[in-house]
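Before the break, one more example. Copy the sequence into your notebook; we will annotate it together after we see the structure.
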Amino acid sequence: MKFFSLFTKTPTHQRFNYTPRYYDPKKEEMAEREARIRREIKLEKDKEAEIGDYRSRITGSFQAARKRSKKTGDTLNSSLLRLGILLFLVLFIIAYIQWGQIALYGFILFVPFYFYLKFKKR
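Here is what the structure looks like once it is written out:
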């Protein structure tokens, strides 16, 4: 008996390839609505193409102009300015805690000097 079983296939457990499906009415309704809106937009674009609408030329021009006008040096200067202001404020707070009113008087004397140097360049 064992001799015959060597040439036959032995039974194995049965495997199922089950993928569960869920019905979501909201998702199906949203997909139908999107398809309908896409068809309407396509029809409108076809009509506008026949008329020669000016919107197609304006579509990306604002973003393109913004990319052209932005310079890398501006971001570096602004970040250095922020760092300088933050450093000055931290040092002023430390000086005020350390020396009190004297630091405040020094700040009051420094502000006009700073504005003088700033507007002297112009």
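The CA atoms of residues 89 and 101 lie 16 Å apart. The longest helix spans residues 72-99. Try to locate both features in your own notes.
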